[in-house]
Structure formats: structure tokens, C-alpha cells
Amino acid sequence: MGSNSRSMADLARQLVLALQPDLGEGSSQLETTTRHVVSELKANAHGGLRTEWEDFARICVEEDVADAYDKLVGKLEHHRRRGGTTWDDNMPLHTTNIPQHIQLLLALSGPIVPKTRELAQEYLTRPPQVPESDLRLYEEIMAEPFEGDHWGPGYDEEVMEGWTESEDSEGNTTATEEEVVTPALKTPRYRSAAADAAREAELRRRAEEEQRLLFAKLSLRDLGANAYWKSGGCDVPIRDDLHGWRALSSAALEGILKDFAARATQAASLRAFVGEALAAGPSSWRSQRSPGASETREAFAEACRLVLNNLGTWIADLESAFMGSGISTSTVVPGAISTTLLLQLELTNKFGDLLDHLCDLIPFTSSANGLLNAIYGAICAPTSLLSRPALVDIFIRSATPMWRLLGDWLVGGMPVPDSLTCGDADIALQGWDDERPLNPEFLIQRDRDSSWSDEDFWEAGYVIDEEGWPAWLHGTQEMVLEGGKSRGLLRSLSTANTETGEWQALEAIIDPFTADIPHALSEYLTPFCKNSQNLLGEVLEWDCELQKHLLAIDALTLMRGTVVVDDWAEWLFDQMRTGKPWADFQLLTHSLRDAIESHGAQWMNPHAVRARTLRGQGKATLVDIRVDYLVPFPLSQLFTPTAMDLRSDVFTFLLRVLRARKVLLKARVLAETRAGGRPEELSQLRRLRHATAWVLDTLWIWVNDVIEIRTGRHRQHMSQGASFQRLISFELDHVRELRRFCFLHAETSSTLEAVEAIVDLSEDLLRVATSTQGVARPVSSPTRPRRRRSRHQDSDSDDSDDDADDALLPQDDAREGGSPRTPQLDQIAETLKASVHRFRQGVDALAAQGGMEAADVRDTWGMLVFALGDWKEPQL
């Protein structure tokens, strides 16, 4: 063992010296390299995994690969010369236009990488390419029907195709074969077992294919004109009873018996359901019933019982015909009763699909609406064409109770408390009272969380059942709801003309051959619903005086009654200016009623007017004022508290602008009557007051024009006789639109801040005018200002008030001297310019919003933009 180690060390030292002769004998580097080589050899000898040896083994094959590469390049030059071109050494080789084996050789020309191994594996296991002519002939042979020129008479395959039986299969190979098959010129020194197995399997497969192809050609040649596709054939008579039960196999008979057994099981389950559903007998829905019991379920069970009776009658007729004691109604002739296939076919055609559908519908019987929707879905299914008439008949019988309840809703109307009918509305609005309940299986139900006093009772009082609107009444939901509610409301108003047409049965409207059931039902329901809605519109217009109440509400909340509102506003502003109480509910309401009665406004009911504040005395401001106008039932469902609250927002906005305009008017009167001593300062104040008043007057005129136009349009909508729900929507949309034009919408909040800043400047100008009066008047001459005020009152007595001016006079001592332009006026001027600039920018943005559908709104904002364009900045 030691000698072997020494010999290995000597060999390793000799190898190192042969590779690196510059290392001298006895040097430390030589000894280190020798020991490293010995350790590597020992590690490999003891079983260590060395990937370098695998690479080395592959590198050893490169000599064979190089020889094959030279020969294949020569073959490639030969192919190019045959194609009419010569090989150019300068022409670059591209992997896209050379065969796969050349690509492999090109990959082997460089260092071996994983991609090279993948390409080699693909090359070894690639499928062969079948010659094009043989492949085309094989596909034509296996195709049906057998067509083509080579199948016709007189076709010589040897002449047309150019081959004979004596043709040597080992003849010259074509270029395609040369590309497909790459012969091994020499047995390689290294070859994997998997590659050899794949190559042998491929050779066997090709040999089998060639053998099958040759056999097919010989068989076709032997057939000649006797092939079945070349003959016309003949008719073969078949007896009528050829396929009797004796001709069927045991498996076929077993399948037929299983089908009969399945049908019998379905019939048994239907009988059990019918017996359970009809066990209690017909009873009213008010009586005690088991869970899930309903009139619709009983009607469906009765329809199933009729189907079972028809099935039993059909079977009895067959039995009678089979025994020869009667005439069968079956299409199967008595002599062929034993023909089980025909019997099975007739059972399937007459009752098969129907029994399948009925068994599938039983789980839906716990809900009336769900059951009818399931039956209608089965009718509309494309697989139920044969059973559709029977399914429609079952639907008519099952939907009869629901149709009767629908007639009670549209003809009798929604249940209304008797107290409303008798005129005692206050009791009825407090709760349920003696309101008639609806059938629990009806598709419309009463919401127990909503009472007649709720403002959304018309929308939320009677709602659709939780299962939704039925599909067989598609497109009639809103119409049916409004029709029943309108009819009930008409009965509560004791309207004489509440008669409707006779409610027809469902079978008189649709039949088993009706193509579109929802359309037919919609055409029948439309006159009932439209008649109720139109009649309710007439009652609201003439009996309830809708337009009269609407006029009074607009006069109050939108300040259309200018004389009354202006008189009351003067009293309110005077109370606020003098510090007197004004926020009390009774004080505000009585003062407003007094203003109405003093002017004799007969078109407004003083007792229906209410005025209040959101906060008490000492905390309330002008913004907290709310006005209401009470209307009788059923208009209280139309002018809801929400609508009145939105109208109060508009009223408060108009009231604030009106007060600012009146304050500026007082400031002008006060400044002009106290003029003297400080003419330049008074001139500056006059210009600021004029610029502020111009903006507020422009805004006031524009808002009133918009309200006038929109109010007239709203009155036309309210008089069109639309449904009550549409009238409620018209009212809410109208007041929301007015709030938007009064800058009370979330999108106009920044513009509203600019308007409020301009309104607040009126108070600042009034304070400046008051202080200017004190400065301009000499202390030693207290009567001089009053004399000037009297002269001004002679020419403009309507715009001045001695008591109001005295109340506006300051109580502090007069201040002598000072600059012509006070810092306070400069601050007001800058604030006014900035606020008007923001106001105009906000209006410009509003005028640019929206698309073509908002053209009217954009034009309205554009009017204000055009008007504000003439505003001039005050020059101080």
C-alpha cells in the first residue's frame, strides 16, 4: 500500500513538472501542487462525485463530433449547389435556416452549457418526419367518405404516382430524408442507454407503419370495383315487430324497466306531496295552518293531482287495450303493445318531462312567490318545448290565488284605517288603528316599522316581499304599487267615482299557447293602474287644491309674497337691531300671521304658518330661522318635513341677503345725512357701499329670476297628473335644485363662503358709516346733522327712517382729526375685492360643469357670470 502511494506521488510529481517545467526540484510550490493532485486522485478513487470527469468524458467525444461536423458541412455545401447557389465562406451561418443537427454542432463548438445538453437531448428524442407523399396518401386512405381522383375508374397508381413494386427501398435518399435521418458514420465512444432505446423504438415504429401502409395499398387493389362505396346499395325490408321484447338483450330490457321504475317513483312522490298538501282541505288563510301551507301550494297540489289522474287514465287505457276489452287512447296500436321501446317513448313524450319538472318544483312549495317563479322559469326553459302547454296550464292553476290577491290590491286598493275614511285622521296617523291586514303570501306586504305619520310612508309603508318582484310580472312593479296605493288613497278620501272594471280570471287572459306571459299580463294591468293614478291626480288638483297650497308654500318659503314677507322682515330686523326678544316660537309665528292678516293675503292660510328657530333666545341667529306651512292629508305625504326643511334653507338664504341689502341702504342714508367735515372719507365709504350693494343686488335679482322660472316649471310638472310617487320626487328634486342655486350644496360650499363674506361686509360698512357720522359732526353743534337729515328726507323719504337712524347712532364720544382714509376702509376694500373674485371664480366653475344633459343648468349659471362681469372695483 505504501509503495502504491509512493508511486502515485512520483507520477503526480512528474505530471506537475511536465505541465509546469519552471518549478524546480525540491521547491515548496512543487510539493504543494503534488500533494493537491494526489489528494484529488484519492478522493475520486474513493467514490467522490466529480462533475469534472463527466465534462471530461464529453470533451473526449469532440474528436468524433468534429469529424461528423466536417462531413455534414460538406453535405450542406452539396445541397446548396443543387439549389443553384454556391457556398460562400464569408456568408454567416444563422440558426434559423439550418437543420437541427447543424444547430447542435454549432452549440458544441463552444463550451458546454446546460442549453447545449437540452439541445442534444431534443435532437436524440425528436420524432421523425414522415415523407410528404406517403403521409398524404395515408390520410386520404383513412378519410371518409372515400373521394378523390385516385378512387375513380381507370386510375393507374403506378403511372400517376411514379412507383412500382420493384422499386428498391434503399435507393437514393432525398434531401428531406437526409435532414431527418442523421447516420452515424462511426460508432461513438460515448452513447447513453436511453438514446439507444429511443432510437430502436423509433426504427420499429417506422417499420410497422411501412408494413401497414403496404397492406392497405394491396387491400385496396384487391377490392377494385367491389368496394361498398362504389355501389349504390339496395333496400332491405324490415318487419314492424322486428324490435320486440324478444329481440332486446337482457341489459336493454333492464334499462327500460329501470326507466319505468323511475317514473313510478316520481309518481309516488307526487302522490305523497298531493296527499300531504290537500290533507287539511281548503281553508281560509286566517285560520290555523301548518308552517309552509298556503293557497298557492294547495293550488299547485291540485294541479299535480290532475296530472296524476291523466297518467292513471293513460295506463288504464293501455291495460284495457292489452286485454282486448277496450279502445286505447294511446298512439301505440294494440297489436304492438309489447313493443316496449315504443311504450317507453310515448310515456316519455307525454309525461316524462312533465314529471321531471313537477318533482323539481316540490322543494319550492314553501314560498308562494318562489313556487310561481320556479314554474315560470320551467316554462321559459329551452328544454321544455314539448311540455310547455302542460306547464302553462299548471302555472295558471297555481297562480290563481295570487292573481286574486293582486286583483284585491288593484281594485280595492291598499288597506286604509277606518279612522282616515271617517275623517278622524289624527287617530289614524298615530298607529295601525283598525287597518285591514294583507294576506301573508301576497307579494306586497305592510312594513310594520312605518306608520302613516312618517313622511316616507308612501314609499316605505307597503313594500315588495323579501323574495323580490315575480318574474312573470316583469316590468309592472312600479305601476302595480302605485295603482294599489292610489286606489286605497282614493277610498280614504271618500271619492265617489272609484269604480273599476271587472277583474277577470287568469285563464281568460293567458292560455297554454301564450307566447309572452309578462307582456300579456302587463297589457291587462295597465288600464287599472293608469285609471287609479289619473283619478288621484284629479282629486289632488280639484278636491285637495294642490295648486293653491303650492302657491301659498312658494309665497312663504321662496318669498314670492313680497309684501307680506318684507313687512315681517322689517319687524324682525328691527327686533334684532334694538336687542329685543325675537327668537321665541310663538312670537315669530304670531308676528308672521299678523303680517299675513294685515295685508289681507287670502291665498295664504295664517293658521297653517309656523316660524321657529333651531336654538333659543340669546343663541339663535338669522341662520337658525325655519318656516313651515302645514297642509292637510294626503298633501302632507307630498310636502314632507324634509321638503319643508329644504325650503327653509332657501328662505334663510334669501332672508340673509335681504337683510344685507337693507343694512347697506341704512348705511347710505346715514352717511349722506351726516355728511360734512370729512367729504373725502364719506366719498370713499359711498364707493365701497355702492360696490357691495351692486354685487348683492345682482345676486338678489338673479336668484329671484331663477326661482320664478323654476317655480313655474315645477307647477306644470305637479299638474300633469303623474303618479303620487312621481309628485313626491318632483317636489324633492325641485327644492334640491333651488338649494343648489342658492349655493347650499356641498359642491358650492366655497362659493357660499364668498357670498357670506360679502354679506358680512354690509355690517362693517354700517359700523364705519356710524363712526364717520360721529367724526364728521362737530361736538358743539348737535342740531346740524339733524337739519341735513331732514333735507335729505324731503327728497328721499321712502329710504330713511328717523327712529332707525337714531338707533344706529353711536353712543361714544366723537373723535377729532385723523387721516382721510382710515385703515378700516382699506381692510373692507381688500376683503370686498378678494370675496368678489372668489365669488366670480366659483360661479365660472359651476357654469363649466356637466355635459349636454346639464345645458339648462350651465346656462343659468352663465347668466350670473355674465351679470357679474360688469362689476367695477372701487377706486379709493
Q: What would the keywords be for this entry?
A:
876 residues, mainly alpha
Please explain how this structure is put together.
With 876 residues, the chain is mainly alpha-helical. It has 31 helices and four strands. The strands form two sheets. Strands 1-2 form a two-stranded antiparallel sheet. Helix 1 (2-19) crosses helix 2, helix 12 (295-323) runs antiparallel to helix 15 and helix 27 runs antiparallel to helix 30 (823-847). It is flat, with a radius of gyration of 52 Å. The termini are far apart. The model is unreliable at 56-60, 163-190, 283-292, 332-337 and 774-823 (pLDDT under 50).
Kindly state the number of beta strands.
4
Report the uncertain regions.
56-60, 163-190, 283-292, 332-337, 774-823
* Beta-strand residue fraction: under 5%
Radius of gyration, in angstroms, nearest whole number = 52 Å
The span between the termini is 121 Å
- The DSSP helix count reads 31
Helix and strand content put the structural class at mainly alpha
What general form does the structure show?
A: flat
- How would you write the strand order of the largest sheet? 1-2
- Compute the average pLDDT: 77
**The biggest beta sheet, please?**
2 strands, antiparallel
Residues in helices, as a percent range: 55-70%
Assembly state: single chain
Q: What's this model, at a glance?
A:
One of its GO terms (cellular component) is gamma-tubulin complex. By secondary structure, the protein is an all-alpha fold. The chain is built from 31 helices and four strands.
